[in-house]
Specification:
By secondary structure, the protein is mainly alpha-helical. The chain has one domain (12-201, 209-397): Up-down Bundle (Growth Hormone, Chain: A). 79% of the residues lie in helices and 0% in strands. It contains 19 helices and no strands. The chain has helices spanning 5-9, 12-39, 43-47, 51-56, 59-67, 69-78, 81-101, 105-119, 122-133, 137-166, 170-191, 210-245, 250-278, 281-299, 304-331, 338-351, 356-367, 371-388, 399-402. The radius of gyration is 20 Å and the shape is globular.
Length: 408
């Protein structure tokens, strides 16, 4: 007898399909911002803007990307996580195509704002949906994080080629059509019952006590903001820095360099996620923040292959903290409010910290270099590490937890 829709949707195979869409969605959620920062190198010639003015076009979109996350998470918790994911794919794809078709800076900024609005859905909804479907949560978050890193890497490489071959508009239109097509496939599987909302975790964990949950919430509010500022600032810094210091063929050199940085940093999250399942996430979180401080400072004073190597390490440690951070947040948040909790995280990580972009523009315009900004980011990494030391101490997983099936 054929399995029912309910049993099919609750099967391990359906969980793997959910993981696949969550991972692909994570890649899509991160591809358009680095594409824009690469395109920003050619927009001054297109619209008669300065580089700093071109960067400012994305500020509203970046703020919406974070500020609207709690509302998206709340709707995922109270209405439907899979319904919100469908809106994410279709809305983001359509907005990306509109960005590529924008005839003026004003309409370009508006289309980028729509991309931020629809993009804000993924992190609070997609990651909460992922965690609910996962068996080994750290491993699942690590795999998911790889796609968050690979997405920008592949996108920047593709954007560089598309821009060189057909112009900057193709760099938005082509991936936008791919994202929209993914949304149509998601709707088909949703209609057939292969994908559905999950109420409760596939592998529940003991509920945290109220005092620890409040303590973790307060500490992570500080660390997530600091880590978000570092991440958000390095995205526009790297293409410009690599274009200035890697010699001829600035656009393609910057595209290739940024691709390599985010590809390797993204892959490191598999290892970081596995570590977060085996060791206290707090310890990994602290060490990742400490390692960033000297590397961010070194970016200001290196060039050539050394610059590329330092950039890879700096971004790798920034991303290596993400599985531990997400695991801590998931562990200390009630499952029925997890999407909302992740939403508030991304207000800090992508919304408030989106102010890093105008800060990059302001300090680069005032000094002509990134030295002061990178020194400030180095200090921020130390603040994150110090704050993370206030998180509750955790023991290693119990034997029963370690023997749990390794299937994600």
């Amino acid at each position: 007898m054929a399995p029912s829709v309910s049993s099919t949707a609750g099967s391990p195979g359906a969980a793997r399909i959910a993981l696949a869409f969550s991972c692909v969605g994570h890649a899509y959620a991160h591809i358009f911002e680095p594409i824009f920062f690469l395109v920003a190198l050619v927009l001054p010639g297109e619209f008669g803007l300065s580089y700093e003015e071109a960067l400012a076009l994305i500020v509203a979109g970046k703020l919406l990307y974070g500020v609207m996350a709690p509302a998206a998470g709340w709707l995922g918790d109270r209405w439907s996580s899979v319904g919100m994911m469908a809106i994410f794919f279709l809305g983001l794809g359509a907005a990306a195509v509109a960005t590529g078709l924008a005839p003026s800076p004003t309409l370009l900024a508006l289309a980028l704002a729509l991309m931020g609005l629809f993009g804000s859905i993924y992190h609070p909804v997609g990651i909460a949906w992922l965690v609910a479907n996962a068996t080994d949560k750290g491993k699942a978050i690590g795999i998911n994080g790889v796609f968050g890193g690979i997405g920008p890497a592949v996108a920047v490489a593709a954007a560089g080629l598309l821009t060189a071959q057909w112009g900057w508009r193709a760099a938005f239109i082509v991936p936008g059509l791919v994202v929209f097509a993914t949304g149509l496939l998601f709707l088909i599987l949703l209609g057939r019952g292969v994908l559905r909302d999950r109420h409760g975790d596939r592998r529940p964990e003991p509920a945290p006590n109220r005092a620890d949950a409040m303590r973790v919430g307060l500490v992570l509010s500080v660390t997530m903001l600091g880590a978000g500022l570092i991440y958000q600032a390095t995205q526009p810094i790297l293409p410009k820095l690599l274009a200035e210091r890697l010699g001829d063929g600035a656009l393609l050199a910057a595209a290739g360099g940024v691709t390599l940085v985010y590809l390797l940093a993204g892959l490191a999250q598999i290892f970081a996620g596995a570590l977060a399942d085996r060791f206290p996430p707090r310890r990994i979180y602290i060490l990742a923040a400490l390692a960033q401080a000297p590397l961010l400072l070194a970016l200001a004073f290196t060039s050539g292959p050394t610059l590329l190597g330092v950039a890879i390490l700096a971004v790798t440690f920034n991303m290596a903290a993400i599985p531990a951070e997400n695991l801590l947040l998931a562990r200390y948040s009630p499952s029925r409010w997890r999407g909302t909790a992740f939403g508030f995280k991304f207000v800090l990580s992508f919304g408030v910290s989106g102010l890093a972009v105008p800060l990059v523009s302001l300090l680069h315009g005032a000094t002509g270099t990134f030295t002061l900004l990178l020194a400030l980011l180095s200090g921020m990494a130390l603040i994150v590490a110090a704050a993370a030391c206030l998180l509750p101490a955790e023991s290693r997983p119990t034997d029963g937890q370690e023997k749990t099936s390794a299937r994600v």
